[in-house]
Predict the 3D structure of the following.
Amino acid sequence: RQAARADALHERGLLPDAEWESSRAGSERAEAEVQSAAARLEVARASLDRANAARDRVVIDCPIDGVVLTRNVEPGQAIAAQFQTPVLFDVAEDLSRMELHVDVDEADVGQVREGQRATFSVDAYPEQRFDAHIVHLRLAPRTVQGVVTYEAVLDVSNAERLLRPGMTATATIVTATHPAMLLVPNTALRFAPPREGPFAPRPRDMPTGPHVWILEGTTPRAVPVRVTATDGTRSAVTGEGIEVGVEVLTGTAREGAAS
């Protein structure tokens, strides 16, 4: 309207040329701004259509069937996959089969092999023993406070769903089996009778190799043995003069004035 009035005044000679040209320039700028706004509107509509299409295509599928253990996002939270894929859920594929990860001391790792059987217990069921077997023995060491261990992965059946992820377990790995062996407590292999007193053995009866002590009447007698295996508490032994039922000495007891 301002441009139309300026044209009418200019035709009648009532408006200087400079003002008329300024009015025409303002009109053209306004028309250009309208066209620019219309173009921005089209771009915004295209962006909206593209966003709606992308939203319709976004479907988050879990790669496995299982049980959701933890949820790391909330409804409506923005997720951006930039340098690494965001973790939305922790899913357990099958709780009927689980893995037990145990640390094997470097002194014992030489006896551990894949396929060996093991048993373990958890604090939730202290009186129950669960069966497992080793499926992997890692080569990479772990050093914690100067102690070197190697990780063993055990396969565990959890058909009763008693075990849960994250439980602390104490495992015993069977590295060797010796059937029908004669066992003695390790304290019997370390026992030494008193060197003085009425029950002291004669010096020539003192043995030099592995042995256990038995009583002949009231006198201790050493029986040489050969140790074939040990579990740290008991040892399998062989030797003449020792058989099932023979009492071996593991310590001394004091009763009154006599010992």
Remarks:
- The mean pLDDT is 86.
- Helices lie at 2-11, 17-57, 186-190.
- The two ends are 128 Å apart (CA to CA).
